[in-house]
Please model this.
Amino acid sequence: MINNTQNSFTIQDLEILSGVKAHTIRIWEKRYNLLNPTRLNRNIRVYSLEDLQKMLNVSLLYQQNYKISKIANFTERELASEAKSIALSGVTNSYQINSLVVSMFTFSERLFEEVYTQQSEKMSFEMIFVEIYLPLLNHMGVLWQTDSIKPAHEHFISNLIYQKIVLNTASAEQATVASKKVHVLFLPEGEIHELGLLFLNYHLKLNGSKVIYLGRDVPLENLSDISSQFNEITWVTSFTIDRPLELKTSFILALEKLLKHTNNECLIIGGIWNSYSKLGIDQRISFINGFSDLIKLKD
Model:
């Protein structure tokens, strides 16, 4: 049940959040009286948080091949119940992600904890992060770019996820470190989004790797002291904020200098590098699109 936090949305917001085109939402609204927006004037309609939650459930069922005519005949309670039953059947994680979106907009820690508790009974924390939190964070990136969420929303949900990573890292029974290789995790200057890297720290430790976690906003020149202390290092860094071509090139040149005359390698995570030319780059530098591509979970 949604709390009393008020929020309003345009039809474009609903399109971005639900994945259903605005044109389709208008048709469903007109044909099936699916939503009840407040009309500011003849052309502008504003949707409530309840409308958003309903639209998320409608989208979930529609993606599972329910006919919209059938969905429209559900009562509010039947719609929520049917969406929840789809989630419990294990067909999709969209219901949990949608619930976390509602948690974000309502600032409901209780709802966040409900989702976490339910999923913890069925899967490991690694799977929760990769299958639910990562898609949510990627979705939030889209919402951020389209001005559909405010900084307070992003900070609220990110801090809750941060707490879960720290809690699970502290309570994990870490495997014995057998390898001489050390993973050094850092975010370059200007990067502050460290949830993915924090989770990788947890994942590596859990799987028996030696890890040095440096955190965010680390200048590359500060890494030379670490380089001199270990014979085999895998540097791991991550980018979420795009950079001009000259800054990317400057970073690569500095990284190649750091790797020179060593047995080390570097993994660079982030889709912003997909279009960057890799010709002539040191082969010990690898580019990974995202954390889900890097982390291979065991069944």
